[in-house]
Write a structure and sequence with these properties.
about 325 residues; disordered N terminus; globular; Tachylectin-2, Chain A; five-stranded antiparallel β-sheet; 21 strands; mainly beta
């Protein structure tokens, strides 16, 4: 997520969605447009129902339906319920919150999200804690845990696009970042979910002139860092693509299959624009029914560039690199 264009693009998409179908007297009826969705979080499955969070006013909770659509159920915050620190740290933010991620622990859900100002790195990553993503549950309640990390115009990083990762050794990490000096990594306290050492300088782990939306995972002794290169939020003109590098240490260095460092614009291609599926981005992985899925958004050329959620089967080659087959119409 970057800048005023991001906010305007998503707002226009939402207004177009509300506008409904065209006049049936003047043209053939068409199918209703699906809901827009941008920057999907990791998927949480509760009682057999998959849900995730997306960028939007107050953070959008979306539920997957039986036919594969993702429909909005609720928002985590109303405009009146937003924590007061949002305005204190990021005065220009008005409740349009970006790029959430979510982690399930034994007894709670931790939601990390971006509070930002348009075109600037005056930003903060917040944390709320709850028990369920089901807005109809008696346990639907979210407690503000405050800011985890902030950035100001004097910093060389942008505190947005959080992705939280529980390592095999029990340590908790958060990757984040957008443009500026790239993707950074901080360690979190597993008990509180907040930064383990608030005075620690974030570690840079990837850089490219246009980079954001990290995601970390672990497989067979390797840590894999997924990132986006390119521009988002421009509809059919978006240039997003998903790349990956790996390291045997959580702190890097992350290299691609040609031994190019992600700190120097490296990255093995995972998914790019293909036919009507434009600018795929903001990846996460979901294990379901014996298959691993790459969850992401893209811009639909057939719907004039509206952003939508998609899941594609992901496999691993004999050298340990992820691969995704491009879909067919």
């Amino acid at each position: 997520m970057t800048g005023l264009s991001t906010w305007l693009f998503i707002l226009v998409c939402e207004l177009l969605l509300v506008a409904g179908t065209v006049d049936a007297q003047n043209t053939e009826p068409r199918r209703p447009d699906p809901e827009t969705a941008h920057d999907p979080s990791a998927v949480i499955v509760e009682n057999g129902t998959p849900r995730l969070l997306c960028t939007g006013w107050g953070l959008q909770v979306k539920k997957e339906t039986a036919d594969g659509r993702w429909l909005t159920e609720a928002a985590l915050f109303s405009r009146e319920q937003r924590p007061s620190w949002h305005a204190e740290l990021v005065p220009e933010n008005r409740g349009h919150l970006w790029a959430p991620d979510i982690l399930r622990t034994e007894q709670r859900l931790l939601v990390y999200y971006s509070v930002s100002s348009f075109g600037k790195n005056t930003s903060a990553i917040g944390l709320v804690e709850g028990k369920t993503l089901d807005p109809n549950s008696d346990d639907w309640h979210w407690k503000d845990r405050g800011p985890v990390l902030r950035s100001q115009k004097t910093d060389r990083f942008n505190a947005i696009d959080p992705a939280v990762f529980a390592a095999p050794d029990g340590r908790l990490w958060m990757s984040f970042g957008s443009f500026w000096d790239g993707i950074h990594l901080v360690e979190l306290n597993p008990r509180t979910g907040l930064q383990k050492d608030p005075l620690a300088t974030p570690l840079r782990v990837a850089w490219s002139p246009e980079i954001e939306a990290p995601f970390l995972t672990y497989r067979n002794g390797w840590y894999y860092l997924f990132v986006n290169h390119g521009k988002c939020c421009r509809g059919v003109d978006s240039t997003y693509e998903i790349l990956v590098g790996r390291s045997q240490s959580i702190t890097g260095p992350y290299l691609d299959d040609q031994n190019h460092s992600l700190l120097d614009s490296g990255g093995r291609s995972v998914l790019t624009t293909h036919q009507q599926w434009i600018g795929p981005g903001h990846a996460s992985l979901l294990d379901r029914d014996g298959t691993q899925w790459l969850v992401h958004h893209y811009y639909d050329k057939e719907l004039h560039g509206k952003s939508r959620i998609r899941m594609l089967p992901l496999t691993w080659d004999d050298r340990g690199w992820p691969k995704v087959a491009q879909p067919t119409p």
